[in-house]
Amino acid sequence: MTKKSIRLGDVVDRFGGQLFGNPEQGVVGIAPLSDATEEQITFLSNPKFRTQATASKAVALILSEADHNAIGDAYIGTRIITANPYVYFAKLAQYFFALNSEPVESGIHPSAWVSPQATVAASAYIGPHASIEAGAIIGDGAWIGAGVAIAKRVAIGAQTRINANVSIYHDCVIGERCVVHSGAVIGADGFGFANEKGKWVKIPQTGRVLIGNDVEIGANTSIDRGALADTIIENGVILDNQIQIGHNCHIGENTAMAGCVGVAGSAKIGKNCTFGGAAMVLGHLTIADNVHISSGSMVSRSILEPGQYTGFYPLAKNADWEKTAAIVRNLGSMRDKLKAVEKAIKQNEANSKDIQG
Amino acid sequence: MTKKSIRLGDVVDRFGGQLFGNPEQGVVGIAPLSDATEEQITFLSNPKFRTQATASKAVALILSEADHNAIGDAYIGTRIITANPYVYFAKLAQYFFALNSEPVESGIHPSAWVSPQATVAASAYIGPHASIEAGAIIGDGAWIGAGVAIAKRVAIGAQTRINANVSIYHDCVIGERCVVHSGAVIGADGFGFANEKGKWVKIPQTGRVLIGNDVEIGANTSIDRGALADTIIENGVILDNQIQIGHNCHIGENTAMAGCVGVAGSAKIGKNCTFGGAAMVLGHLTIADNVHISSGSMVSRSILEPGQYTGFYPLAKNADWEKTAAIVRNLGSMRDKLKAVEKAIKQNEANSKDIQG
Amino acid sequence: MTKKSIRLGDVVDRFGGQLFGNPEQGVVGIAPLSDATEEQITFLSNPKFRTQATASKAVALILSEADHNAIGDAYIGTRIITANPYVYFAKLAQYFFALNSEPVESGIHPSAWVSPQATVAASAYIGPHASIEAGAIIGDGAWIGAGVAIAKRVAIGAQTRINANVSIYHDCVIGERCVVHSGAVIGADGFGFANEKGKWVKIPQTGRVLIGNDVEIGANTSIDRGALADTIIENGVILDNQIQIGHNCHIGENTAMAGCVGVAGSAKIGKNCTFGGAAMVLGHLTIADNVHISSGSMVSRSILEPGQYTGFYPLAKNADWEKTAAIVRNLGSMRDKLKAVEKAIKQNEANSKDIQG
After folding, report:
1. Which candidate among A198, A234, B208, B316 keeps its CA 20 to 30 Å from the CA of A126?
2. Quick count: other Cβ atoms within 10 Å of Cβ B20?
3. Which of B109, B247, B250, B284 is flagged as catalytic?
4. Are C203 and A315 an interchain contact pair (Cβ–Cβ within 8 Å)?
5. Helix/strand/coil (H, E, C) string of A218-280?
6. Closest of B1, B4, B60, B65 to residue B36, by C-alpha
7. Per-residue pLDDT for B4 more than 90?
8. Which domain of life is it from (chains A, B, C) (predicted)?
């Protein structure tokens, strides 16, 4: 299949930036500096790769003004100058992706089951063996993959894509232009139990999950419904795979979480936060906006001040770890010894003064 | 829809407690102190919220005798006094939940596939695109959601609810009144391999998973089948989402695990234990009854004594962590310096005695 | 059902080893020392169980030459001597497993959906409610479980088993003789976004997942597709449950990962490595061949030297941990105090010399 081409003039009309070169030049795709072919455009997002940029085979280069000036005559191809070449790359890659994609299906697959009481937009697609229960609403252009289970009264916004084998429990709401990856579970019961003489008494979980627009939810990620109030994921949140979000959590706009993160119930997390892989947040905590948690770190108290926070044991050769871990276990005794030493020195100094005095 | 109401007199007949007020008063639901409306009942489970309790709009309040005495005339509504208001809340919430729920479906959905060699109780429900293989037994009132895969000879107990897209492998047994949430996998092969000159030789996993009564299993949780013997989950165990239970584990009655916990193969865990989120247990360990493991903690040795155990690196601002982590890496040298100092002081004291002596 | 029997003479013909005893003796299965019946064979893989071995009811014993010599006349049954009894056990267990298994199904279940543009080998099995999209190729003897979703142009190699409710995204390739367990997701989008003034711009993920031969993938494990290049899992890799593999990772032959491991994007991991449960690897790192990471350890830098590496905070009684964690937080001040002490001692010694001098 021949890849479709776009004129560079059209690229800057669409995505902005300052073009240095022939606007009639066409490109068929975007690729990293080292991989790009002579029919593609490439991008320089890190000054340390300037030499690679000048050597790239790409017919055109997206770069910042600073890199443009620094490179000067060393690069002879066409340039597009923009404030953020990496974002420019992302948008142009999206454009090429859509340009070369198969047309999106619509209609209901003959093997799907759709309740007569459900409402499915004519432009939506319902895949093989998907099931849509009574009262559910599937918006314009939404795409529901194979084996997806949509329970009663769920709402799926326009242009949202729910991939194969996702499960969405009753009454949950998902906004527009979201992507939910396979195996994700939205709206299962939160983990709420009262303990009566050792036995657990289940507390019914009657809240919902409300997910905003432009949210991405990774494969095998779970987001529990609220106990009484709702679990809320605001617009623009991005969650990677294997993440656990407990009941009644509230995650602010544009916050990002990498794989394997866990957030216990009722945590309130601000906007524009980032969580590295396998970071964990205890329940009922408050995390301010613009907090960044490093991978593998355990958040056991509220964080009210923006910044980067970390807490994991540094890796070492096993034999070295055995040593340091044994000392960590006995840090109390080490501190006591240090205090004794400090005291002895003071005593010594006092004695010494007596002698010298 | 009008919510159904219950007389307070009927509440205490059903759930116990001592009523102070009008038994004819009806309530339509239960809610927390701050959310409850004038038609609802509320509960006080923590003395520090006494002031909120006296200000609640609720028509009635569930509380302990101690709080009842402490509050005195400050609260003018109806009261129910009970030993454990939180458990009372849980039970009453279950009651209202059932009262206001739609009637449970029964019968086999036309899109489901049920083997002619399977046995399905007439009162059970089999949802869209579920599959029930030969020899499987589905008990009275069991509820099998959309896309659930029940393999050969699996037994599902009465009143158990298996939510959408759960997978249960052949020969596993699940007790009565259990809840299994979407995406859970029960009975996949344990991780058993022998290493022959670098290559892994698979050991067939021929045991089963046996799950007792009143067990809850969270979304996307995995419980592996035993290698030769069975993996056993006793009555009343509650497991949150994204949990991994390895082959041949044995988990005692009423033990609770929060999200993201991992338990490696052949661990034997006692009764009434609790595991905080993302706690990890190595294989072949024994954990006594009534052991409580904090979130994010790694259990690398058997624990034979009840109590609370913890082990995670404390979170800090990243710059501070960089410093402390560097010191942790070199704790051996720090200890050596301390020893040298101690020795020097002893030497000094000896010298000093000589001088003074 | 009577279990099928095999002559010991046939066992050594098939799997090697030196037989001491009657080759006409039949065995119907293999079991551990303490469980084996008089009709079974057992194995001794650890010298510390020699006494148990001599007491076993099994009609025959697989053991090493060293154990054979050490045991001498204490054991009177038949023996098979081999270099690696545990591997011998695994192979013989596989043999018995196959011998006593039901014949594997083939053909397409009437409730499955197979695109007319897909290619399914006549000897393959497609289970209930599975879906196979256009362009997919299902190899000889492959087994596709209930509710599995195979997207466009996916290739599944011969004899590979895909268990119930697995999701495989378009264009991914899985080799021969693999096992993929339920809930696994292969080929979901990697977590790639550019940040434009706080908002996330999605980078299309156009690479694939390429999985070699003889790979095992555990329940609810996720392996993301590459962003531009492919994510690669080489031959013989074994992955346990609940694992996350980010986009563009490359995992070398025969590497093994236990449950709950997370590997961030673009990590390059060598051959014959092992990762304990819940170990985590940051993105873009390189891990050499034969590196072994302990459970619960966080790999935050590349590891270029083979060996065992560890990094987790040692578990303690909670009260003790509270103490040591407080000290860890203040290790900087402890180090400063130690320095001050060292200085004071030097000063003291100098003074002392002055006095004595």
Report:
1. A234
2. 13
3. B247
4. no
5. CCCCEECCCCCCCEEECCCCEECCCCEECCCCEECCCCEECCCCEECCCCEECCCCEECCCCE
6. B60
7. no
8. Bacteria
Residues of chain B contacting C242 with CB distance shorter than 8 Å = 220, 222, 242, 244, 262
pLDDT surpasses 90 at A198? yes
Residues of B in contact with C236 (CB under 8 A): 199-200
Token code pair at residue A186? 């939205």
Tell me: the pLDDT tens digits for C102-122? 888 899 999 999 999 999 999
CA distance C345 to C356: 16
Q: How confident is the model at residue B310, as a pLDDT?
A: 98
The domain limits of chain C are 6-100, 166-309, 318-356
Q: In the block, which residue shows the tokens 């420019």?
A: A88
Coil, helix or strand for C185?
strand
Query: What is d(CA C183, CA B220) in angstroms, rounded to the nearest whole number?
Result: 8
Residues of C in contact with A181 (CB under 8 A): 185, 188-189
- With an 8 Å Cβ cutoff, are A334 and B332 in contact? no
Which of B312, B322, B326 is facing A298, going by the closest CB pair?
Answer: B312
Instruction: Report how many Cβ contacts below 8 Å link chain A to chain C.
Output: 238
Active site residue C247: yes
Chain A residues lying within 8 Å of B254, measured CB to CB: 198-200
What is the Cα–Cα distance from C313 to A297, expressed in whole angstroms?
Answer: 12
ipTM of the predicted structure? 0.95
Neighbours of chain B (3+ CB pairs under 8 A): A, C
Residue A2 above 80 pLDDT? no
Structure-token match 């497991």, residue found:
B239
Indicate which residue of C247, C250, C284, C292 is catalytic.
C247
Please tell me the CATH code under which domain A166-309 is placed. Answer: 2.160.10.10
**Partners for A (CB, 8 Å, 3+ pairs)?**
B, C
Q: Which residue has the tokens 């005559």?
A: A73
Measure the CA–CA gap between B248 and B266, rounded to whole angstroms. Answer: 5
- One-letter amino acid for residue B145 of the chain: G
Q: Which residues from chain B sit within 8 angstroms of residue C43, using beta carbons?
A: none
Q: Is C85 exposed, middle or buried (0-12, 13-18, 19+ CB in 10 A)?
A: buried
Q: Mean pLDDT, chain C, as a whole number?
A: 95
- Where does A6-100 sit in CATH, by number? 3.40.1390.10
When pLDDT is averaged across residues A81-97 and rounded to a whole number, the result is 96
**Contacts of C356 by beta carbon, 8 Å cutoff, 6+ apart:** B351, B355
Give mean pLDDT, residues C151-158.
Answer: 98
**A63 near A49, Cβ under 8 Å?**
no
pLDDT value, residue C355: 63
Contact B198 C272 (CB under 8 A): yes
Asked whether residue C352 carries a pLDDT value surpassing 80, the answer given is no
What is residue B30's DSSP assignment? Answer: B
- How far apart (Å, rounded) are the C-alpha atoms in residues C208 and A258? 20
Q: Is C278 helix (H, G, I), strand (E, B) or coil?
A: coil
**Separation of CA C319 from chain center:** 36
Shortest Cα–Cα distance, C10 to chain A (Å): 45
Q: Which residue, among C202, C343, C352, would best test binding to A if mutated, counting the most A CBs under 10 Å from its CB?
A: C202
Report the relative pairing of strands A193-196 and A199-202 from DSSP bridges: antiparallel
What does the CA dihedral A86, A87, A91, A93 come to, rounded to 10 degrees? 20
Contact yes or no for C222/C240 (Cβ under 8 A): no
What lies within 8 Å, CB to CB, of A177 at 6+ separation is A157, A158, A159, A160, A213, A214
Is B294 within 8 Å of C318 when comparing Cβ atoms? yes
The pLDDT tens digits for A110-163 are: 999 999 999 999 999 999 999 999 999 999 999 999 999 999 999 999 999 999
- Which residues of A are designated catalytic? 247
Per the CB < 8 A criterion, the answer to whether A141 and A104 are in contact is: yes
Query: Is it the case that residue C357 has pLDDT exceeding 60?
Result: no
